Structure formats: C-alpha cells, structure tokens
Amino acid sequence: MADRRTRAALARAAWTFASGLPPLVLMTDDERLPDPLAAARTLPKGSLVILRGAQRETFGAGLAAVARARGLVLSIAGDTRVAASLGARALHLSEDRAHEAAHWRALRSGWLITCAAHSLGAAARAHAFGADAVLLSPVFETASHRGRAALGPLRLRLMAAALPGPVYALGGIGAANARRLGGADLAGLAAIGALAA
Q: In this structure, is the dihedral angle defined by the CA atoms of residues 45, 66, 187 and 33, taken in order, positive or negative?
C-alpha cells in the first residue's frame, strides 16, 4: 500500500506526459490490489482504471460508480460484454488478443482501446491493429512479472520513440523511479501497487 504523498508524487510525474490520453493508469489485480475501489477513489480526475480478472464481476458496478463520480475513464480488460453492461467506454486487450483491436475499433469507434505489450514487435502490432495506446512492460522489476527481464529506462525510451503510437510505462513504476522516465516519449504511467490506497 502506498501512502498519500507517494501516490500524489506518482500522479504529478504522470501528468508531465501530455498526450491527450489519460496520463495515469491504475491496473487492478486480483492478488496485489484487493480493494480497487479505495485505490480508484484516490485517483485524480482524468485517470484511467483498467479492471481485470475476477474483479470485473466483483467490483465492476462499484468502480463504474466511482469512475462516474470522480471523472475517471473505466476500461474493462478483455470482456466487451462487461464493458457494455457497465457503460465503460474503454477496452484493454492482452498481447495475444491485440489483433481484436481492429474489430472493436470498427464496432465501438468512440472507445479507448489499449493493449498489453512486452516487446517492440508486440507493441508495433498492437498499433497496426488500431490500438490507441500500448502498455509496455515490465519497465522495472515487478512482482507481477517475477523472473522476467525488465526493459529499463533506456530501452523503454528507444522503444517508445520507435513506435507509431502512444505508449504507457508499466511494471515496477513508483514515485521514486518515475523520475528516471522523465523526457521519454510516453502517454503516461501505469501502476498497481504504487497506487494502492
């Protein structure tokens, strides 16, 4: 759990990336973020919440209400039925489902569509399929991807600069290391634990 000052510092760092997209992204996680409602209530207006896993059913209605009340963008990971039922206007696709972005772009032209990516090739494919942005990870060592080599700030910068569309940094992002990403061509920052309330 991050304290209020640490969450605020991360939010300030995210807002330095001006892209027209939500600069701060909260990723829910069944294990690492047991109460996504509390975390969402602390987010600044204009942030994006990506609701994933079993929490889609458990917290969907509550998060939709928090998003409406606080001016947040609610995205549902991988389930357009749940997204539509909650009135969400955003969809997040896994790396292996990035090819579906074009399909959902055609059906839901107003939706924000993001995709997960763990390599330059995967991120480029997601953009080619019509994703509005990719969440590139892991940037730093993270509990979500134990054992996976982190990209690091330099590699992330090079990849973001080479890609044709917006990129979010995800994976081990916190207030302290967010400063190491300053000046990178990013849409913003995404986190799980660093935004837990």
A: positive
What's the whole-number mean pLDDT along residues 132-136? 98
Taking Cα atoms as reference points, which of 103, 102, 80 lies closest to residue 90? 80
33-48 per-position pLDDT tens digit: 989 999 999 999 999 9
CA distances from 161 to 71, 98, 133, 165, 185 (A): 30, 20, 13, 9, 6
Q: CA 39, 43, 46: angle at the middle one, nearest 5?
A: 140
How far, in Å, are 135, 179, 184 from residue 166 at the CA level?
A: 9, 19, 11
Q: How many CB atoms lie within 10 A of CB 14?
A: 27
Whether the full predicted model's pTM is greater than 0.90, yes or no, is yes
Model pLDDT, residue 55: 87
* Residues contacting 92, CB < 8 A, separation 6+: 50, 52, 75, 76, 77, 78, 113, 114, 115, 116, 135
Handedness of CA 179, 174, 136, 82 (dihedral sign): negative
Q: Which residue has the tokens 């919440």?
A: 49
